[in-house]
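wait is this the right file?? whatever heres the structure
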């Protein structure tokens, strides 16, 4: 899938990029990653996206997009099913860094795994709570993926994706059993495969 990037007019003097992903666990939809190089004076209020309200994430996302350099990368459902979710996540992260449009001097990645890439990098467990650049990336990745799933919910209203974002909630599982899988469901995930066999 394609990646998008943007850079603010503010001069960027540090080339440390934070990277995080959204959507490893859901049963449907792509996995989305973001890479962010913060603006020199930083952004107040950054935190792990999971701890922030929707309104706060929305405000911070707008500020990050306006003032920082960022890249968004995705791996499609087809790619997830072909190479597995871990490798698809690594692919999305690589695409996000490549979409920055410049080469960072160091990449800080949330979690305990790194893609196989040419960048100097560190994997940092709970990095989204420790490093503002990773926090910013977590916000962009979650917001981007949530928009994708809310749009998909308009075409597939049975599954509640505008509320569960593709995760295997009771509502989603009941709809999967009743209506079957869509093209956005990850067929390599056991609950989807089992529902398709009914």
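ok assuming it is, sequence goes like this
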């Amino acid at each position: 899938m394609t990646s998008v990037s943007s850079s603010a007019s503010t001069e960027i003097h540090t080339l440390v990029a934070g990277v995080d992903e959204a959507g490893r666990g859901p049963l449907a939809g792509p996995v989305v990653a973001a890479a962010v190089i913060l603006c020199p004076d930083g952004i107040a209020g950054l935190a792990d996206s999971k701890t922030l309200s929707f309104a706060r994430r929305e405000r911070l996302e707008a500020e990050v997009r306006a003032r920082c350099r960022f890249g968004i990368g995705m791996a499609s459902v087809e790619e997830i099913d072909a190479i597995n979710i871990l490798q698809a996540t690594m692919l999305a992260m690589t695409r996000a860094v490549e979409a920055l449009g410049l080469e960072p001097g160091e990449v800080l990645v949330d979690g305990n795994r790194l893609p196989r890439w040419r960048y100097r990098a560190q994997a940092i467990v709970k990095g989204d709570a420790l490093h503002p650049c990773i926090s910013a990336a977590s916000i962009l990745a979650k917001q981007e993926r949530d928009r994708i799933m809310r749009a998909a919910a308009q075409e597939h209203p049975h599954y509640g994706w505008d509320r569960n974002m593709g995760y295997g909630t009771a509502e989603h599982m009941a709809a999967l059993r009743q209506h079957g899988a869509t093209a956005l469901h990850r067929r390599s995930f056991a609950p989807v495969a089992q529902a398709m066999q009914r």
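The first helix runs from residue 54 to 67. so i think its the right one actually
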